[in-house]
Structure formats: C-alpha cells, structure tokens
Hints:
- By secondary structure, the chain is of the alpha+beta class.
- Helices cover about 35% and strands about 30% of the residues.
- The strands form three sheets. It has a four-stranded mixed sheet with strand order 3-10-9-8.
- Strand 9 (about 150-155) and strand 10 form a beta hairpin.
Amino acid sequence: MLSSTWKRDKTNLKMISIKMIPSKRIKDLMLDLSDLKRVSPEAKVVEAVKLFDERRQSGGLQFLLVVDEVGNKEEILGKLSIDDILAQMEPSTMKMEELPIFWQSQFWEECEDILQKTTGSIMSPVKHVIHQSATLIEAVHLMNSGRVDWLPVVESGNVVGILFKEDLFNEVLDAAKPKNDEPSDDPA
C-alpha cells in the first residue's frame, strides 16, 4: 500500500510516496509446526546432533523444538540450537586466556559428556508465547523485553507455529525497499 504526502526539500515542495507497512499479523509470518522437527526433552544430545546433520544436508533450519507429550497434546518446552550445544562446550568458570593447555586435551572428553546430556537440560526454554492474531509490534516488544529470537505462536491455547526475529526483520527490509512504480527524484 502506498500513501502520498508532501515533503519540503531545501528549495521546493514535492510529492513523495511513503510505503505503509501492511497490517500483517503474526499468523502471516509464522512457520507452521508441521515444518519443524521435534525432539523429546529426554532424548540425548547425540540424537539431536544426528537430526541437525540431516537438516544441514537437506538445507533445513538448524534448530529443533523440544516437546513433551501431555495426553494427546504436544507441549513445547523450548528450542535446541547449535548455539545451545556449543555453549555447553566452553567452561564457564574461566576466561579463554586463562584456560590451561591441558583443557585442549580434555575437549573431546567433554564433547562425549555433552553428547550424553538430555536435550531438555541444555535447551533454550520458552519464555513467552504470542497469539497468532497479535501485531508485529507486540512480537517485537516480547522478543526485545524477553531477549529471545523466537516465539511460539498460539491459537485457542494450542501452539500452531513459531515466529522468528529474522522473519520480523525481513518485513522491515521489505517495507524499506523502493517499489519500481514509485516516482523518482531524478529529473531525467
């Protein structure tokens, strides 16, 4: 949708077009749950790593939903990403420059230990959810205030999709792109 307005340019007044951001809702941007791989919170990280490898080879998203079966319903507990796994590999008690040289030799042993942990113990838990009819600014607020890059999307108490911060930002990028039919400032 385009809207026209007048803008004062240093010496003259000219008509410009301002692109209005469409009134999209969360349901317009979310990924459907059927497109997303799941893993149990009791599953070992090594099983998740195998799923990540399958996803990498097929060009899929590099995260898994950690879900628990509650009756005949799935409850999303969190998200497991490559970042979550790699964060477990770095000792949190020491700065990198303070790591003793022997740590390098223990690295692979630590990797083996991490692979035996459960996905539920290292996942990024759900902090907030958003309704599918919510506005984009509501999603921006929840993501920024909660410092998260994803939100489960709900409808009637059921999770129906996932919204990512990148998808919100892509909307901003689309709104900022000039349209070919907009008038040019170039007098040529």
